[in-house]
Write a structure and sequence with these properties.
49% of the residues lie in helices and 12% in strands. It has 310 residues and is an alpha/beta fold. Strands 7-6-5-8-9 form a five-stranded mixed beta sheet. β8 and β9 form a beta hairpin.
């Protein structure tokens, strides 16, 4: 049991964001990342993005995308492009900013394609020996599918990886269309998704250690208070132990149900490989909106409107 738990956690952290990709890339090369004089300031700026106010962060993110695009086509350029892409969806930084980030990533992959990766994750539920699109292509496909940007660069020479990544995301979405699960909240009360038909259900995957999760939680609490009387149910799902989650929730006075998924069965059901993730279902149980990262209150409101809440 402990071994399976460890394998699931390794899988989650390996895919959570572009920062992890940077570390994995370096480990795979068995060498320390050495930034050039031109690259180092950009790497430092990316590292400090979360500390910036959102309005400043939007402009800085766009500026970084443009500067990265001008770098020589090296491994470090790809690291920077992927890292920036992973952080660019943590909030509402504008479609134009996201487009520049996606354009930079697509252009970098065109200059320096990444080989397919072979899955050896059979112990964690995958299929060993199966070719999968490399993480940078999944990151680009995620921006295109969920943030509605255009790749802008012809990827016909990517050996089909971008198309495979898009197909993988489509398959993941099909798995989320009709979830069937029961989890207990912190008080031990069971919550079954099927029993919530007739309600608008917002399912949010989060963890206490996740900065973007913590940042969006007050907005979720506000929206729960505003729309609860109209039939909104917010289910916060964490794969952590109750001993860690309970004091966190109590300190922040979170009133919506927080469900525990220590075995990650529901995380796997929703194909959650990075958090926060949010899925909204209308009163008929149809998936009408989802987010791949942290959302602002304004963005959550736009998502809830698709389920009929104003």
């Amino acid at each position: 049991m402990k071994r399976n738990r460890l394998l699931h956690m390794v899988k989650l952290f390996s895919l959570i964001a572009a920062l992890t990709f940077v570390l994995q890339f370096a480990a795979a090369q068995k060498k320390e990342i050495v930034w050039s004089a031109e690259e180092k300031p950009l790497a430092d700026q990316i590292h400090g993005l979360r500390a910036l106010p959102d309005d400043v962060r939007a402009g800085t993110t766009k500026d970084l995308a443009l500067k990265i695009r001008k770098l020589p086509p090296t491994e470090n350029k790809l690291r920077l492009a992927v890292n920036l892409a992973g952080l660019s969806t943590e909030g509402d930084f504008g479609h134009n900013t996201l487009q520049e980030v996606a354009t930079t990533l697509a252009a970098t992959l065109r200059e320096r394609p990444v080989p397919w990766q072979e899955s050896n994750d059979s112990d964690a539920g995958g299929k060993a020996g199966v070719r999968e699109p490399a993480y940078p292509y999944l990151e680009l496909a995620t921006l295109v599918r969920y943030e509605h940007v255009e790749p802008t660069v012809d990827l016909n020479n990517d050996d089909g990886q971008f198309r495979a990544a898009m197909a993988q995301l489509e398959a993941d979405d099909r798995k989320r269309e009709h979830p069937d699960f029961t989890l207990k909240d912190l008080s031990g009360k069971p919550w079954t998704f099927a029993d919530l038909r007739g309600k608008v259900v917002l399912v949010n995957f989060w963890a206490t250690w996740c900065p973007p999760c913590r940042k969006e939680m007050p907005d979720l609490e506000t929206l729960y208070g505003r729309f609860r009387s109209q039939g909104l149910v917010v289910l916060g799902i964490s794969d952590e132990e109750a001993a860690k989650v309970e004091p966190f929730i109590r300190e922040r006075k979170v009133s919506f149900p927080v469900l525990l998924d220590p075995g990650r069965k529901v995380n796997d059901l929703f194909v959650v490989q990075g958090i926060p993730k949010t899925f909204i279902y209308d009163r008929q149980g149809k998936l009408v909106a989802q987010s791949i990262d942290m959302r602002t209150q304004k963005q959550f409101l736009e998502m809830l409107r698709k389920a009929g809440l104003e």
